[in-house]
Amino acid sequence: MIALKILGILLFDTTAWHGIALAVLLIAGYWGMFKKSGVDPRWSLVPCVRDYMFSRCAGREPEGRVLFITNVIMLVMDLILTIVDVQIEEGQASNLALALSALAFVLLIVRVVYHIRICSGIIQMYHAKGWWMWLWLFITGLPAVIWGFNPKYQPEIQAEDLTRMSLDTISGVSVAGMKDGLTVNLEERTAKEFFQKKYLLRDIHMYIKPGHMVLLLGGSGAGKTTFLNAVNGYEKAKAKVTLNGGDIYSEYKKMQYEIGFVPQQELMRGKDTVYRTLTDASRLRLPRDISSKDRKARVEEVMRIFGLTPVRGNLVEKLSGGQKKRLSIALEFISNPSLFILDEPDSGLDGVMARELMEQLRMIADQGKIIIVITHTPDRVIDLFDDVIVLAKDSNRTGRLAFFGSIEEARSFFGKQTMEQIVMTINRQEEGGEGRADEFITKYAEVQHA
Rounded to whole angstroms, how far apart are CA atoms 448 and 41? Predict the structure, then answer.
């Protein structure tokens, strides 16, 4: 029934043919404009997606996401309304049609508003006069064809450049790989999002000495977790990461036992005892050829180091918050790794317990280990850290290195006395910060380059 209805429209309805002609005109225009903006012109053939790609050409990618989602919803609703119309014709009245029609009206307003924003962006991108807006709104295919195929009209910046460009200042300085310690040379970490490559991290280079305890600092969304996952090899980036001379990426199976990662969430069975939990971890993390006697000795030693011997027979679910944190760290320490990464190990702990935990981490670092810690209350334990890594979102929301060095050097570099003040300095203004991330990213890149 629906197929016959559509066929009848195509054969006898001149309005339908007029719509097809406008669609062909729009596709042709977008094809030319996409080529000029460095976007694959074949996207002009795909409904909904072509409007999103057009928003990229206009430098209005966030608006394009909203428009894309709105268009997809409206396409689905059109299909549902077509089916409902057939049912009504057959005598099955439905309130669904009225509800969907009301929602469609709201979505239509949203689509018009965001289409206007995108058209405004394309006019600015091509340095055209304001009166072009009327053509873009009512006969979109006509200006698209004119701008797409007339050499007179050229975009100021290509879409790919808009995506890649976070800041012009790139340090371009790689750190020499060292036989001891952690060397990170991360060019970029990207991901696919909305049919394009998104830059999550860029231009991060550093060398951390053995025995150093390092604070990882940055506002929400600055890329701290992404950076740690890239360092430990869990999510590979375009990077070269070495630990004590071993390549974490190319020798991952070998190197993964050299890295201990303690997530914020506790992944332990509550019904097991402390001793059973550590014994199970030893079977997984210690070499298979180790003797049973040596394995038990290692478990005993780790319990002693983290003060868990008095509660060795207690169930995990009965432990205090501080004891659970120490046990989660002990699980990773069982294999005696060279690099320890901890994501908010002090969350949920009071000041005294958090201090005791950080002091234990300081003792581990003093054994020649590298400790990297994320904490939301850094200033109460800042005296225990040697260095600080400061990540910040640049103007295009890409995670960049705003500073790496000692605590005193960080205070001097940012002109702030506390770590919380440093975070507020680089946070965006809409997040309650000073919005100076680009300033310090550029400053640090220039320092590295010098």
Answer: 40
| Domains within the chain, CATH numbers bracketed | 2-164 (no CATH), 182-449 (3.40.50.300)
Sheet holding 196-208, edge to edge: 246-247, 238-243, 182-193, 196-208, 399-406, 387-393, 213-217, 370-374, 339-343, 259-262
Confidence (pTM): 0.70
Question: Which 8-state DSSP code applies to residue 417?
Answer: S
Report residue 4 CA to chain centroid gap: 48
pLDDT tens per residue across span 200-259: 899 999 999 999 999 999 988 888 999 999 999 888 888 999 999 899 998 888 888 889
Specify whether the CB–CB gap between 56 and 39 falls below 8 A.
yes
Spatial neighbors of 74 by CB under 8 A, at least 6 apart, are: 104, 107, 108, 111
Dist CA 381 CA 270 (whole Å): 30
Enclosing H/E stretch for 243: strand 238-243
Question: How many other C-beta atoms can be found within 10 angstroms of the C-beta atom of residue 261?
Answer: 18
Q: Are strands 387-393 and 182-193 parallel, antiparallel or unpaired?
A: unpaired
* Residue found by looking up tokens 């698209």 in the block: 144
Structure confidence by residue, pLDDT tens digits, 75-99:
887 777 676 655 555 445 466 667 7
Q: With beta carbons less than 8 A apart as the criterion, state whether 239 and 401 touch.
A: no
Rounded CA gap, 346 and 343, in Å?
Answer: 9
Which phi and psi angles does 406 have, rounded to 5°? Answer: -70, 165
- Are the CB atoms for 340 and 372 separated by under 8 Å? yes
Q: How far apart are the first and last CA of the chain?
A: 73
C-alpha angle 125/109/114, rounded to 5°? 20
399-406 and 196-208: which strand pairing?
Answer: parallel
Whole-angstrom distance, CA of residue 208 vs CA of residue 259 = 14
Phi, psi of 191 (to 5 degrees): -150, 155
Span 10-43, pLDDT tens digits: 444 445 556 677 788 888 989 999 888 888 889 8
Strands, E assignment, 301-393: 339-343, 370-374, 387-393
